[in-house]
C-alpha cells in the first residue's frame, strides 16, 4: 500500500479527514469483523488508496461499492477494480450527498474507516433508513464510539446515543492505536459494530424524537422542566403525559423514556392543530 501511495502521489489531506490505514493485518481484521461478505454488497465510504477495499475483496465480498470524493485516489482504486473484474465499483462523489441504499442491491452492508470530520453527520443521515442494511461496521474516534454505546447516567450518553440505540444495537469491537494510521491522528480509533433492529426499540415519531433530544441535551445540566422550554409548549403537562419527572435531567432518561416524550410532544402538537 505504501508503494501504491508513493506511485500515485497520494498524501492524506487534513481537510478531508483522511488517515490511511495501511496495516494489512488490521484491515483484514476489520473485514472479518463485518461477518460473512460473500452474500452481500458492501458499501465503503472514503476508501482512499484502497487498503480496506483490498481486505474486503480478499475476504470474499460479492461486490464492493466504494464512494470516494478525492480524485487523486481514483487511479489507485481503478487498478484494484481491474484486478477484481466485476466486483468493485468506484463512485466519485461526496458521501454526504448520496444515499448508499440506492447504490446497492440487498443484502447490503456498510464497512468503512470513516473520515473523522464527517463521521457523525454520515451516521445521523443513515439512521433514518438503517433497516436497509444488514449491518454497519464503522471506524470512529474513540470518543464518538463511546457516545454510540453509552448508557444513561454516563458522561458519554447523549443525543447520538438515543437516536442510534432507538433503531439499532451497537458495540465497540476493538480499538486501533493512532500509530497504525498514516498520518497518525491525535486520538485512538474504535471499530463499532452496528446491528439494525427489526423494529425500533419502542414506537416514536422521529421528528419529535429529534426535537426532544436536541432540546434536552442542548442544556443537559438543567432539569427537563427548564431545558425543554425552547420547544415553545407547556413543559409540565408534556412531562406528566410521558410519566417523566420534571426534575430529571437528560442524561438520566432511558431511550424508551425519550420515546415517550416524543409521543407526548406529537400528541400535544396534534391537539393544538385540532384546536386551531
Architecture overview:
This protein is 39% helix and 18% strand. The protein is α/β, with parallel strands linked by helices and 276 residues long. The strands form two sheets. A seven-stranded mixed beta sheet has the order 4-3-2-5-6-9-7. A two-stranded antiparallel sheet has the order 1-8. The model has no long low-confidence stretch (mean pLDDT 91).
CATH topology of the largest domain: Rossmann fold
CATH architectural name of the largest domain: 3-Layer(aba) Sandwich
Round the Cα radius of gyration to an integer and report it. 21 Å
Distance between the termini: 64 Å
Whole-number total of structural domains: 2
Q: Could you give the order of the helices and strands?
A: HEHEHEHEEHEHHEEEHHHH
Please give the number of β-strands: 9
Fold topology:
Layout: H1 2-8, E1 20-21, H2 24-33, E2 41-45, H3 51-58, E3 63-68, H4 74-83, E4 88-92, E5 108-113, H5 119-127, E6 135-141, H6 142-149, H7 159-167, E7 168-176, E8 181-182, E9 189-196, H8 206-218, H9 224-227, H10 235-242, H11 255-275
Parallel strand pairs: 2-3, 2-5, 3-4, 5-6
Antiparallel strand pairs: 1-8, 6-9, 7-9
Helix pairs in contact: 2-3, 7-11, 8-11, 10-11
